[in-house]
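A reminder from the course coordinator: this example appears on the midterm review sheet, so study it carefully.

Given structure:
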């Protein structure tokens, strides 16, 4: 299975997103975090991700006669590389972006369905900026964004902390 096919399946993408914060989880815990995914579907896609090395098994123990595994995301295998993206056709990119955008829409919809969503108070933002950049300036900008995210990626749950998902899309735009 190609990496893009593996990672860009909507259910597998949700599982990977649920584990992005670094917290290990059992399949039962994943089902609690992702109740919209049917149990059989969850188990099947967790197995696919584990077999591909995207999820690693941290622990195995017997619980009521069933082997329970605790998984952690193998972060460097949970993203498309430059080579993966270069090998994709325009239709592959269209499908991948549609899956990505659909996932964002679903995440935002679930947020708005909470009992009392407060976008302003919760710091929700969605915005665009048009920048005139050389290729080198563009790469430097992306490196700065990656560094800022990486610097904050180690924090876990705690008092006053809210799990936030940050998404980034960068692409050339038509000139005006």
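Designed residues:
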């Amino acid at each position: 299975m190609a990496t893009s096919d593996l990672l860009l399946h909507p259910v597998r993408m949700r599982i990977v997103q649920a584990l992005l914060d670094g917290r290990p989880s059992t399949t039962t815990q994943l089902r609690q975090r992702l109740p919209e995914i049917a149990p059989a579907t969850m188990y099947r896609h967790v197995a696919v991700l584990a077999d591909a090395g995207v999820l690693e098994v941290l622990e195995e123990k017997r619980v009521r006669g069933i082997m329970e595994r605790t998984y952690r995301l193998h972060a460097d295998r949970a993203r498309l590389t430059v080579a993966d993206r270069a090998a994709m056709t325009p239709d592959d990119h269209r499908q991948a972006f549609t899956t990505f955008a659909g996932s964002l829409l679903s995440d935002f919809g679930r947020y708005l369905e909470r009992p009392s969503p407060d976008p302003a108070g919760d710091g929700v933002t969605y915005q665009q900026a048009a920048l005139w950049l050389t290729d080198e300036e563009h790469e430097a900008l992306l490196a700065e964004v990656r560094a800022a995210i990486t610097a904050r990626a180690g924090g876990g749950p705690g008092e006053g902390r809210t799990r936030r998902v940050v998404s980034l899309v960068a692409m050339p735009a038509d000139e005006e």
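The beta strands are 25-26, 55-63, 66-73. The helical segments are 3-7, 10-19, 27-33, 39-51, 82-87, 90-112, 135-152.
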